[in-house]
Structures are given as C-alpha cells and as structure tokens.
Specification:
Shape: rod-shaped
CATH superfamily of the largest domain: P-loop containing nucleotide triphosphate hydrolases
Distance between the termini: 33 Å
Strand content: 5-15%
Low-confidence stretches: 1-47, 551-575
CATH topology of the largest domain: Rossmann fold
GO molecular function: GTP binding; GTPase activity; microtubule binding
Helix content: 55-70%
Mean pLDDT: 81
Strand order of the largest sheet: 4-3-5-2-6-1-7-8-9
Bound molecules: guanosine-5'-diphosphate, magnesium ion
InterPro entries: Dynamin, Dynamin_GTPase, Dynamin_GTPase_CS, Dynamin_N, Dynamin_stalk, G_DYNAMIN_dom, GED, GED_dom
Number of domains: 2
Family: Belongs to the TRAFAC class dynamin-like GTPase superfamily. Dynamin/Fzo/YdjA family.
GO biological process, one term: synaptic vesicle budding from presynaptic endocytic zone membrane
Number of strands: 11
Keywords: Cytoplasm, GTP-binding, Nucleotide-binding
C-alpha cells in the first residue's frame, strides 16, 4: 500500500515514517520497516472518533483562534542536552539544530500541518520576518539564523517565539514547542541570571492548562534531582498533563539498569501519565550520518535485545514509535478534556470583545462591495446634520445662532453708536453751510445735496465694519461645518480633509458673493431715499413737533401765527434740522441692522449648506471608496482588530457547537 493512502490523521510516529520516505530517500538508505508494518501498528489505534477532534483543533487554529486563546499543544522541557531536540526530530521528521551547549535559544513552535495534497513546504516566521522554503534540509540553518536574529550571535536567549510551520501531505496536525534547555552555570558572556531567565520562559508555557508537558530526562542522570521534572510538578501538581521521556538508555552505566527500570515503571517518582523510554540518534550516529529511519530500526533492535528493557517494549513503555502513539492519544484526550474550558473561554471572550466594540463606533465594513453603500450612509448622515444646522441652527454642540447673535449685536451696536457722530456731522455741516454758503434765502436749511454728501460719507464708512461682521460670521459657520464634519468622519482622515477643503472653498465663494452684496447695499444707501410715508411716520412718532413748540400755539389764529414773532420761530427751524435729519439715519439703521445679518445667514449659512450637501451627494459618484474610508487612526486599527477577533471567536464557537 503506498504511503499516500495512509489515513489523514495518523500518529506522530507515522508522520515521521512517511516524512522520511519522501525526504530522506536521496540518502540511499531504505527503511527496514515495511509499510504494512507501519499501517498495522497505527491504523487501528486511530478510530474515527478521534480524528474529528484533531481536525477541530486544526480548523480552530486555521481561523487564527490561537491568537485569542491557547489551544492544546505540547511543550518539550528538559535540561540542556537532555535530548529534547532529538525527541522532537524523531517525532516530526524535521532536522532541528542539535548539538552540545545551548542550541535552542528561543522557543520554537513547530506546527505540523497536514495537506490534503501538494508538496512539502516550510514557513519560518519571527519578528515580522516570514520566509517560505521547499527544502527540508534548510530547516537547521534557517532556525539558527532566526535565533541569531532574536537572541544574538552567541549564547544569549530570548523569549521571542520562532514559528516553524511544516506543511506536507505526510505529517499530521500536531503543535510542539521546543524550549531552551535548563542550565545552571552561565557560560561565556551569558548573564548571571540566565538560569532564571530560562526557567521563567519555560514556566510561562507549562503553566498553561492547554499545554501537555513533555519532560525529557536522560537515563544517565539522577531523575529525583532533575530540575525539569520539579518544574513540571510545580506547574502541574496532579501530573495530569505531564509525560516523562527518558533518553539515552544506551549511555547507562552498567549496573544502573534496574534503577532506570524502576523509574520507567513509576516506582521512583510516580507520574499519572507515566514514562516512556526512547533511544535517539547519539552524536556518533550523527557523525556516521545514520539517517532517521535507520535510527528507528536501531532503536527497536536496541530495546528488543536489551536484557532489562525488552519487556518495556511490549508494555508500550519504550521506543519513539510508542511515544508517538502515546503522545497523540494524550493530545486527543487532552483536547476532549479541554473542550468545555475552551468553549467557556470563547464565550467569555466574545462577550468581552462585544463590550469593547461598543466603545468604538461602527466602523467601515471590511468587504469592498459594502463600502460604497456605507460611504453613502455616512455622507447622508452628515448632509442631514448640515441641513438641520442650516434649518434650525442645531448641531450636537449647541445652536449656531447663539454664536452668531453676538456678532450681529456688535454690528447693531456699531450702527447705533455712529448715530451720535452722524448727528454731530449734520450739525457741523449746517453750521458750515450757514457760515459759508448761505445766500439771501431765509434762515432755513434746504440744501439737499449737502445733506446727501454727509449721508454718503457716513454710509461709506459702514462698509468696513460690515465686512468685519462678514468675517466673523464666516469663521463661525466654517468652524461649525467643520465640527459636524469632524464628528461624522473622525475615523476617516482622507474623507474629512476632502470635506474640510470643500467647506473652505464654498465659504470663500460665498464670501465673495456677500462682499459684492454688501457693497451694493452701501451704494444703495448712498442714494438717500425713503418713501414719504415712511419718513412722515418717523416724523409723527418723533418729538419734533413738541420741540418746535407747536402745541403751545395750537389755539392761535393762522394769521397770528405768521405775524407774531412766535410764528416766525416756527419757520426758523435751524436748530431742529439735525434732529429731523437724524430721523433719516434711523431709517438707514433699520435697513442695515437687519439686512446685513439676513444676507449673511442666507449666503454664508443657508446657501453654503445647500451647496455643501449637493457636493457631498455628488462625491459618492465615482469616489475611491476604499481610499476615502481608509482609517489610519489607532481607533480604526483597534476596531478592525476587534471585529476580526469577534468574527474568529464566533466562527470558533460555531465550529465547536457543530462538531459536538
Ligand atoms: P537538547 O539540548 O535537549 O535539545 O538535546 P539534543 O537533542 O541536542 O541532544 C544532545 C545530545 O545528546 C546530542 O548530541 C544527541 O545526539 C544526543 N542524544 C540525544 N538522545 C540520545 C540518545 O538516546 N542516545 C545517545 N547516545 N545520544 C543521544
Ligand atoms: Mg535543543
């Protein structure tokens, strides 16, 4: 039976065997394992009930849920040179950096991914670097390079994770983490606390409930004093997640075999998950280029022929093959056990993310096809707010008329205040006229042209304050528009700037129009005109009659009036001319004090709002929505991140629910 027809979810051991067939083939040695043997050993072990579980974790990892919660995985811990990398190598079929001294200097996450079809490929990623390669023999070098990048070229360590993902049709899904070995004595330039640093790093991993702890202990050391085992017991006091592996059985001193046997049988340090003894490639095997498959043969041969350990082989307590079987079983059991906790964690996270999302307003949709309608929606919302502002003056931060009123009041006060100077000017004009230009006419003032001059001068001087009023209003309206824009488009800097520009341009155009109108007003006022009825009404309402003393002479006969000196006084109205003319100023005042603000409201607020709304609606046509809705604020990023998390978690929840 060809290796490819092996069931999708096979044991870790199987993955090694099949891997070897593909990659080590070139190295001339052929496995003495027959394929039927491989199948016979493992096919029965994997029932259909466990496969969906591994697949579940696989699909959870595929949607990236491991960014949010810890998924079941296996961490390998042990003293330096205890054989961790060798065990991993045997399990995964991937040649990792090995040797004496500190070789593993960063946590290495080894993700084995089963492909339904396709070629072997590896992807190494660390600190923003990502590299895909297609030659398994490159693993060693690339891992060393990554470690040099993260932990320096010498002997330092780092807790930054290197992820090595191996995808192949001939591996099964398993995640193993190789951790730096425990050391006691700093070497070379290692910091004094190197031991503590490594211990902290290991604890970080093994304290997680989702981690199966693989403690690697060489047979030729005293297990009771092994730091790794002690740490595992500390992190997992019940020993539910701890599996011990004894390595280097070939290096045991003669006579110590029974002690080791007792350990494997759990008689020295009992562990609920027990012990497995394996023999990996030793340094001499590597030097002799013994390939992995031959090493497996040698291992079986070693145990079969071992005087003390051969019985362990039958009890499933020895060999890498047995370890692979056991490990996969443990992982599956562990997944089963973890599921309720996993579901609980996912549910709690979903609630948390939903709460967090509430803080951040609804952002743009992530799908491009939904962006156009979304842009329309926010533009219409903005337009509505501008419309409301123009219609009622209301906006989220108060009414614009409250801001405009003081500006208009100032204009009004200015007009009022100049009344005094106007009167003074009129008086001065009359006096000057009487002095310089009066001819033989009676003592009355009747030169309309002179009066017109005064009016013209005075009105002309009103242009500057009117323009100032315009500026004041323009600033308020522009700021208010921008404020609404900012509230509506705060997440979209590009869109916001676009609208800001539009607001500025529209205001500028309107300003030019209003300037022209104000000049027209001033020009019109220089005509000196009002309807007779209007002026008559002003005269009637004024106290001019009283001032002329007319009432006092009401009973006089008409001829008396003319003849008496008192009657003459009536004709002589010199001293009342300024008052009469002042009445005309009242008319100018009334016209200007209202018209200028009305003009400003109409052009700067209402018409500007109309134009802006029009332009905004046009903006939707042919707009580069992706660009306009680009968020570069932290808020945008955070929201996008939260949305993705929520999507991931919800998907995970669905996956778990449907597979139960
Ligand atoms: P690590 O530092 O824990 O990762 O240990 P390594 O896997 O790098 O192994 C350290 C050394 O022990 C290497 O030279 C291995 O070849 C050797 N080694 C590992 N396992 C065995 C074994 O079962 N028997 C023998 N003889 N040597 C082994
Ligand atoms: Mg190592």
């Amino acid at each position: 039976m060809p290796a490819r027809s092996v069931p999708a979810r096979a044991s870790s051991f199987l993955l090694f065997i099949t891997y070897k067939r593909q990659t080590m083939h070139s190295q001339d040695e052929e496995s003495s394992f027959s394929e039927s043997q491989i199948h016979g050993a493992f096919h029965n072990h994997f029932t259909d009930s466990v496969q969906p579980l591994i697949e579940l974790i696989d699909s959870l990892r595929l949607i990236g849920i491991d960014k949010d919660i810890d998924l079941p995985s296996i961490a390998v811990v042990g003293d330096q040179s205890s054989g961790k990398s060798s065990v991993l190598e045997a399990l995964s079929g991937v040649g990792l950096p090995r040797g004496s001294g500190i070789v593993t200097r960063c946590p290495l996450e080894l993700k084995l991914r089963k492909l339904r079809q396709g070629q072997w490929s590896g992807t190494i990623s660390y600190r923003g670097h990502k590299e895909t390669f297609y030659d398994p023999l490159m693993v060693d070098n690339l891992v060393r390079k990554a470690q040099n990048q993260l932990a320096g070229n010498t002997v330092g360590i780092s807790d930054e994770l290197i992820t090595l993902e191996i995808s192949s049709p001939n591996v099964c899904d398993l995640t193993l983490i190789d951790l730096p070995g425990i050391t006691r004595v700093p070497v070379q330039d290692q910091p004094d606390d190197i031991g503590d640093q490594i211990k902290d790093l290991i604890l970080k991993y093994i304290f997680k409930n989702e981690t199966i702890i693989l403690v690697v202990v060489p047979c030729n050391v005293d297990i009771t004093t092994t730091e790794a085992l002690r740490m595992a017991q500390h992190a997992d006091p019940e020993g539910n997640r701890t599996l011990a592996i004894l390595t280097k059985p070939d290096l045991i001193d003669q006579g110590a075999e029974t002690d080791v046997l007792n350990i494997v049988l759990g008689k020295v340090v009992p562990l609920s998950k027990g012990y497995i003894i394996v023999r990996c490639r030793g340094q001499s095997d590597i030097n002799n280029k013994i390939p992995l498959d031959k090493a497996i043969d040698k291992e079986i041969e070693f145990f079969t022929n071992h005087r003390y350990f051969s019985s362990l082989l039958n009890d499933d307590k020895a060999s890498t093959k047995c370890l692979a079987k056991k490990l996969t079983k443990e992982l599956v059991d562990h997944i089963k056990k973890s599921l309720p906790h996993l579901t609980e964690q996912i549910n709690t996270k979903i609630l948390g993310v939903r709460e967090d999302l509430k803080i951040y307003d609804q952002g743009p949709p992530l799908e491009e096809e939904k962006m156009g309608p979304f842009l329309s929606k926010i533009i219409i919302e903005f337009s509505d707010q501008i419309n409301e502002l123009s219609r009622t003056g209301h906006s989220k931060n108060g009414n614009i008329h409250a801001l405009l009123r003081p500006v208009f009041k100032k204009w009004d006060s200015h007009l009022r205040d100049t009344e005094v100077s106007f009167n003074a000017k009129v008086k001065e004009m009359i006096e000057k006229y009487n002095e310089m230009h009066r001819g033989r006419e009676l003592l009355t003032f009747s030169d309309f042209a002179e009066f017109e001059c005064v009016i013209k001068d005075h009105v002309a001087a009103l242009q500057a304050p009117a323009m100032q009023t315009l500026k004041g209003v323009q600033e308020i309206v522009q700021n208010k528009f921008k404020e609404v824009c900012n509230l509506c488009f705060v997440q979209y800097p590009l869109l916001k700037n676009n609208v800001y520009k539009k607001i500025g341009e529209i205001q500028l155009k309107q300003e030019v129009k209003v300037e022209k109108r104000i000049k027209e007003f001033i020009d019109m006022e220089q005509l000196v005109f009002t309807q007779d009825k209007v002026f008559q009404k002003k005269l009637d309402e004024s106290d001019i009659h009283q001032m002329t003393g007319l009432e006092r002479y009401e009973n006089l006969r008409e001829d008396d009036m003319v003849l008496t000196s008192k009657g003459c006084a009536l004709l002589d109205t010199r001293n009342l001319v300024p008052e009469k003319l002042a009445l005309y100023y009242e008319i100018i005042y009334q016209r200007l004090t209202d018209y200028v603000p009305m003009l400003l409201i109409l052009f700067m607020l209402k018409d500007a709002a109309k134009t802006l709304r029009h332009q905004m609606l046009e903006m939707r046509n042919g707009a580069d929505v992706v660009e306009l809705l680009k968020e570069d604020t932290d808020q945008g990023r955070r929201r996008a991140d939260l949305k993705q998390r929520l999507e991931r978690l919800t998907k995970a929840q669905e996956l778990i629910n449907t597979r139960r």
